[in-house]
Design a protein that fits this description.
The complex is a heterodimer of chains A (about 270) and B (about 290). Chain A has about 270 residues and is mostly helical. Chain A is built from 14 helices and no strands. Chain A is elongated. The mean pLDDT of chain A is about 85. Among the domains of chain B are: about 90 residues, no CATH class; about 100 residues, Immunoglobulin-like (Sandwich). In chain B, the strands form eight sheets. Chain B has a five-stranded mixed β-sheet with strand order 14-21-20-17-18, with no helix packed on it. Chain B has a three-stranded antiparallel β-sheet with strand order 3-5-4, with no helix packed on it.
Chain lengths: ~270, ~290
């Protein structure tokens, strides 16, 4: 190659390097670059899973990125489908996307492969089934999970949710009352208990629970709310907390109206 | 022979340098490609973002709020630890329920119903959020204690009626006094007038032993000022006047220090600055 040809090649190479570096530093966050390059050197399933976990926690607002978590979980499962929680996590991500059939496929795979080794996979399946309207199976999965973790307030609360949806208000009342015995100030349980009592038309008792729920939900912080939803985007913490407060206040109003209405009715009957 | 050998060496060296450059360029380019294109950005297309819907309706229209605490592999067992609640006095809440704490004996407000826009306090016995002025947290209540100085009770609210000395009452707020200020002025120095900055200035700062100097300063928004010289001079005024103050005869290095006290409540509480006057050394032929 003559001198002229070489210098032209030199210029092209320099431009390529400059463009690549410009793209690199302008587009990609430094921690992502670090992950990409580290992963290029050690493309193991466990590393991919660990990176996926890093991007899938409501406790880490800076690194929360469900798309990137999914990317790494997919790599992890392709490299080692026997990894302990990999199908569980893919099920959660599909669930977040609202892709319930895919979520069910993944969680069933997880339970088939690992069974009771990962009991909270039953909880996830209960959650998915609940959203799909399959309340009977959902209740069974929650019951199975509660055998392993009987004092888990969130599981009790969600168990009550599907019982209520299935029209089993009495069972929901019993479950939430048992939970409240351990967690007397838990606004989720108090709200579900108030709902169950309302469904049973026990309005004065429902009002007491709703009042307690209203009192305790005022004290709930965004961090506590996010703790109850570990897969949620931390950015929606304030929105979720506000929605919870509004729901409890609305329930109070609904119960108040029911009490007022039943008082009027009984007055009319007596007259 | 030697010249030909030298030419061959130079050519090889250049060739190696060019190759090294291309190898390095390729390596950087490869890293950039790996770093950028291995799923670089955030992808949230189609992402609903909530692990569970915020609320769901019960058969008769109540709002159920599901949670999802046990969903994460790392959260197993984290939602089964009951919180230990305490009353405002630090004692454990009866049956771990702050609603069963002793009822407050003073006027009180409950949660969002506190007067004056004050937020209710937490039910866990922690002083958060804040009670209205004059109220202290107790369990789920903000209980009236006493209005602090400068406030009076109007209905159930403490209303500000006066401010600490030096502050000015503006609506509900006490406005602090202005900070110390240095104001420039035209001096009438015997050696030629100049604009003095208002800060402590000594003219000249280099004198023969036995000479005097002029000291200038001009301060506003101060409660008091003084200028003290290490030679024993001293003036207790906020301004030197346009002519300045004349020192005693300077016979040794002298430091003049201006100290001003701010108006009550203003920041900083005081200001101090110094100037040094030196003596021109006298040389003697031996």
């Amino acid at each position: 190659m003559d001198f002229r040809g070489r210098s032209q090649l030199f210029i092209v190479a320099a431009i390529l390097v400059f463009v690549a570096l410009a793209i690199l530093f302008l587009r990609v966050p430094p921690d992502y670059m670090y992950e990409n390059i580290s992963f290029a050197f050690d493309p193991s399933a466990s590393r991919a899973f660990a990176y996926g976990e890093q991007h899938f926690s409501s406790a880490s607002p800076d690194s929360y990125d469900v798309g990137r978590a999914e990317y790494f979980f997919n790599i992890a499962v392709a490299k080692d489908p026997t990894l302990l929680y990999v199908h569980h996590e893919l099920a959660r991500i599909s669930f977040l996307h609202g892709e319930f059939p895919d979520a069910m496929k993944q969680i069933n795979l997880q339970i088939t492969m690992h069974g009771d080794t990962t009991p909270n996979s039953y909880y996830i399946r209960g959650l998915i089934e609940g959203f799909m309207g399959d309340y009977a199976d959902s209740a069974k999965d929650y019951e199975h999970f509660l055998q392993f973790d009987p004092h888990d307030w969130a599981a009790i609360n969600d168990y009550a949710w599907v019982l209520l949806k299935a029209g089993r208000a009495k069972d929901a009342e019993v479950a939430t009352a048992a939970g409240i015995a351990y967690f007397p100030n838990n606004p989720w349980l108090l709200n579900s208990n108030a709902t169950a009592l309302y469904e049973l038309k026990e309005y004065p008792e429902a009002l007491v629970s709703a009042q307690k729920a209203l009192a305790t939900v005022q004290n709930l912080t965004e961090a506590e709310w996010l703790h109850a939803y570990p897969g949620n985007d931390p950015k929606i913490g304030a929105q979720g907390l506000a929605a919870f407060k509004v729901a409890v206040a609305d329930n109070m109003h609904t119960i108040d109206s029911a009490i007022a209405s039943s008082t009027v009715q009984s007055k009319v009957l007596h007259e | 022979m030697s010249k030909a050998h030298h030419t061959h060496d130079t050519f090889s060296l250049r060739s190696i340098r060019v190759k090294t450059f291309f190898v390095l360029a390729f390596a950087i380019f490869a890293f950039a490609i790996v770093g950028v294109f291995s799923h670089a950005g955030k992808s949230t297309a189609g992402f609903k973002s909530s692990e569970v819907a915020f609320t769901d309706a019960s058969p008769h229209g109540m709002e159920i709020v599901p949670a999802s605490c046990p969903s994460s592999p790392h959260f197993f067992g984290e939602c089964d630890v009951p919180i230990t609640w305490t009353c405002a006095d630090g004692t454990p809440a009866p049956n771990n329920d702050v609603n069963q704490c002793p009822p407050p004996s003073q006027p009180s407000c409950f949660f969002g119903l506190c007067p004056g826009g004050g937020s209710p306090r937490g039910g866990g016995g922690t002083p958060n959020p804040v009670c209205p002025i004059g109220y202290v947290g107790q369990g789920n209540y903000c209980v009236f204690s006493a209005c602090p100085a400068g406030y009076t009770l109007s209905g159930t609210q403490c209303v500000r009626v006066s401010c600490p000395f030096g502050f000015t009452l503006s609506g509900e707020n006490c406005i602090p006094p202005a900070s110390i200020n240095f104001v420039n002025f035209s001096s009438t120095n015997p050696n030629g007038p100049f604009i003095a900055s208002g800060h402590l200035q000594v003219v000249p700062i280099l004198v023969k032993s036995g000479d005097t100097v002029q000291v200038y300063w001009n301060v506003t928004n101060a409660s008091s000022c003084s200028v003290i010289g290490t030679d024993g001079d001293g003036w207790n005024t906020k301004s030197s006047g346009t002519a300045g103050q004349t020192s005693s005869a300077i016979t040794a290095q002298t430091t003049f220090t201006l100290s001003c006290q701010s108006l009550p409540g203003a920041t900083p509480a005081s200001v101090q600055e110094s100037q040094v006057v030196n003596i021109i050394p006298v040389f003697k032929e031996l």
